Amino acid sequence: MIKIKQTFEREEIAPDAIPDVVRNELNKNRDQFRPGMSIAVTCGSRGIANISIIIKAVIDCLKKYQTRPFVTAAMGSHGGATDEGQRRVLADFGITEEYLDCPVRSSMETVYVGNTEEGEPVYIDKYAAEADGILVCGRIKAHTSFRGEYESGLMKMMTVGLGKQQGADAFHSMGIEHMAERLPQFGNAILKNCSIVYGLGIIENAYEKTYRLIGMLPEEIPVREPELLMEAKKMMGKLYFDHADVIVVDEMGKNISGDGMDPNITGKYPSPYLTGSISTQHLVVLDLTEESHGNANGLGCANVTTRRLYGKLDMDATYPNAITSTALWAVKIPIVAASDKEAIQIAVKACTGAGRKNPRIIRIKNTLDIGEIYISEALLEEAKRHPKIEIISELQKWDFNEQGNLF
Asked: Which alpha helices (H) appear in 236-332, and where do they start and end?
């Protein structure tokens, strides 16, 4: 294997500059925040860069406006679809009452707020519904299961995140193939029937750094989000190869992607309606992050895994997410190997064509961290020709320990 460096756009907002940027974005429309208002600030289950700094900056700013802010867990059926599970997810990101100096509220109870124009019922979080206003904060990026004018972003945060399990279930009831058309239907119904006072969109660069923070009035959210989605897609990282026989992912997790491993990176999608990115014969995943608390949604995208990961799998935490989204195949259990070495060997052995004798292998830490990766010798000449790839090591053997593991 050879270590290489992939180069992407590096522009970012430094963490110590984030509070000033947040303050500037909110100050543009501070008339939205009247003294005495109770304001629910949404926070989801994704591992967003600097999320604790961003949320605290929002809370501090709202306090200066003499409002009464609190954070509400907005993550659909994640966290095992329980109050405690969702509060634990927030704590993992540093979103605690002690750090923010404001309440953090988590409940699976929802309130019916009306119907879409097509007659579908719409629900949102009880605490958010009871607040005088809701500030929707979330990352805008490509979704892992569908393509549309709106994908992951503020419209989805309102529909699925604030919808909790009941709202997410209503949204997903027609299946993944209809998510793109239904998302604006539900999002617009919430904007019409709920007290959304502001939106704060987050875009990250390919290095998992905060690239942009964009404040929006509620009526601007459905207008601006599509263009921001296109900008986010341009900033995404990728593997600079068209084909790999085997991709090895050291770790997956809900803090990394909704599907544990972003299929926009691996090319292995949990949805039969999506293709694209790199083509891959087999995907191997070696471990599950502690921050996932046993939720291995997306494991079904892999062909081989390890006993290490399997031992961390919590079905009670994993299955509600898949059942709510109707993507049952996303949680199927692949072949379970005794060690990392055996898992990789199985994947290579199952390759066809030239992939068995001279396999094109890519190893990454996770789908967020792809700046420095490892490639097999079969990819070396292709890497040398790519203008955005730098070779940074000599050929080296896999560093397996006595148990056949890499870590």
From this structure: 263-266, 307-312, 315-325
Q: What are phi and psi of 162, to 5 degrees?
A: -70, -20
Residue with tokens 């020709």: 385
Per-residue pLDDT tens digits for 268-277: 987 776 767 8
- Give how far the C-alpha of residue 287 lies from the chain's centroid of Cα atoms, to the nearest Å: 17
Lookup: tokens for 26 = 């909110």
Q: How many helices (H) and strands (E) in the chain?
A: 14, 16
Q: Give the tens place of pLDDT for each residue, 3-50.
A: 999 999 999 999 999 999 999 999 999 999 999 999 999 999 878 999
Q: Report the alpha-carbon distance of residue 181 to residue 202 in Å, rounded.
A: 23
Q: What is the 3-state secondary structure (H, E, C) of 21-34?
A: HHHHHHHCCHHHCC
Q: Residues 6 or more apart from 103 whose CB is under 8 A from it?
A: 70, 71, 97
Within 13 A of 305's CA, how many CA atoms are on the CB side?
Answer: 23
User: How far is 399 from 347, CA to CA, in rounded Å?
Assistant: 18
Query: What pTM was estimated for this model as a whole?
Result: 0.85
Region of 316 please: left (phi>0), alpha (psi -120 to 50) or beta. Answer: alpha
3-state SS class at 198: strand
Rounded Cα distance between 233 and 2, Å, is: 28
Give the residue among 278, 239, 277 at the shortest CA–CA distance from 366: 239
Q: Which domains does the chain have, with CATH numbers?
A: 15-235 (3.40.50.11440), 238-391 (no CATH)
Distance (Å, rounded) from C-alpha 3 to C-alpha 69? Answer: 47
Element (H, E) at 6: strand 2-6
